[in-house]
């Protein structure tokens, strides 16, 4: 689209490779030279049910202690109830449990995220949630 006649856009294979490489699942949210957000900023950004996994990945990156993972898990569960169409909070709840070395507790949230992403036809959500299932 939009290119010279006979020139195609990315192939399905290239798109899949980019998706698996992480471009479609947690791509960079901040520009070069931008300082990292604080924990308070990262978690505040989750209040409005943001689309995409970037804001959740930012918070997950800052949640390096068991206490912060627990706090983020509670926030993710609350957002999953408040935003029943969004796959991201359920996925983040699964990630918190996975990172707490509780994979049995992670499978339910991942499955819910996969269901929500499938219902929305969101290939990024499907890939992110299915990755750990």
What this model shows, in words?
The protein has 133 residues and is mainly alpha-helical. The protein is built from seven helices and no strands. The protein has helices spanning 12-21, 39-44, 54-62, 66-82, 88-99, 103-120, 123-132. The relative contact order is 0.12. Residues 1-24 and 26-31 have low confidence and may be disordered.
Instruction: State the order of secondary-structure elements, H for helix, E for strand.
Output: HHHHHHH
Number of helices: 7
Low-confidence stretches: 1-24, 26-31
Averaged pLDDT, please? Answer: 81
Task: For the record, give the distance between the C-alpha atoms at the N and C termini, rounded to a whole number.
Answer: 35 Å
User: What is the CA-based Rg, rounded?
Assistant: 16 Å
**How much helix is in the residues?**
55-70%
* Total beta strand runs: 0
Proportion of residues in extended strands:
under 5%
What is the overall shape?
globular
Please outline the major beta sheet.
none
Structural class based on helices, strands and sheet pairing: mainly alpha
Compact summary:
This protein has 133 residues and is mostly helical. It has helices at 12-21, 39-44, 54-62, 66-82, 88-99, 103-120, 123-132.
Q: What is the topological layout?
A:
Blueprint: H1 12-21, H2 39-44, H3 54-62, H4 66-82, H5 88-99, H6 103-120, H7 123-132
Helix pairs in contact: 4-5, 5-6, 6-7
Key terms for this structure?
133 residues, mainly alpha, 7 helices, 0% strand, disordered N terminus
